[in-house]
Design goal:
The complex is a heterodimer. By secondary structure, chain A is mainly beta. Chain A has no helices and eleven strands. The model of chain A has no long low-confidence stretch (mean pLDDT 95). Chain B has a single domain, classed as Immunoglobulin-like. In chain B, strand 6 and strand 7 form a beta hairpin. The chains are: A mainly beta, B mainly beta. The interface between A and B is medium-sized, with 28 and 23 residues.
Chain lengths: 112, 113
């Protein structure tokens, strides 16, 4: 059982480039989340999904986009990367609303 | 919106000393969860507290949920170097955020042998 898998683990982008962070879970969880973590801070919610075909904005959605075409996959798209998007990105899934969340290993992104 | 605050931000102890981190929410919580993140790692679930006044133990770790369900604490007895990491408390938001967790900023624990 792989759990939540994120790719890539590390990435360096130039300002203005775009990329997609991949997230896949094999636990058949309906709830999926994208968080970003900046040094010394907690995790901030970027986008969430309560099931396939349903997504919505979190606390810090600007500069990002998501899609949820299947239960398993929840990719995060960065358009026109900016230095402010340098962060560690975590994808998480949960079987229940307000339930335990299972995190992927994270993607460490630098925008230079 | 709901805010979750944790203190202290950092704690440096000698191995064998005790450690406590405190968590306070601006709103009443349906449950509170604790996660541990090792340096360079990802958050890993430790425990969930649901009932008012609940106390749960995991070996040397003791978790408490306040009577008003707005505060919580994590106490580690006789710390070990394996306890190093950042401990986060988190409370679920409402349906308007997909019940995403609102995390405190965490308490980073450093244990010196």
């Amino acid at each position: 059982n792989a759990g939540v898998t994120q790719t890539p683990k590390f990435r360096i982008l130039k300002i203005g480039q775009s990329m997609t962070l991949q997230c896949t879970q094999d636990m058949n969880h309906n709830y999926m989340y994208w968080y970003r973590q900046d040094p010394g801070m907690g995790l901030k919610l970027i986008y969430y999904s309560v099931g396939a075909g349903i997504t919505d904005k979190g606390e810090v959605p600007n500069g990002y986009n998501v899609s949820r075409s299947t239960t398993e996959d929840f990719p995060l798209r960065l358009e026109l990367a900016a230095p402010s998007q340098t962060s560690v990105y975590f994808c998480a899934s949960s079987p229940l609303g307000a339930g335990i969340q299972y995190f992927g290993a994270g993607t460490r992104l630098s925008v230079l | 919106g709901q805010q979750v605050m944790q203190i202290p931000q950092y704690q440096h102890v000698q191995e064998g000393e005790d450690f406590t981190t405190y968590c306070n929410s601006s709103t009443t919580l349906s449950n509170i969860q604790w996660y541990k993140q090792r340096p360079g790692g990802h958050p890993v679930f430790l425990i969930q507290l649901v009932k008012s006044g609940e106390v749960k133990k995991q070996k040397r770790l003791t978790f408490q949920f306040g009577e008003a369900k707005k505060n919580s604490s994590l106490h580690i007895t006789a710390t070990q170097t394996t306890d190093v990491g950042t401990y986060f408390c988190a409370g679920p938001g409402g349906s308007n955020s997909g019940y995403a967790l609102n995390f405190g900023k965490g308490t980073s624990l450093l244990v010196t042998p």
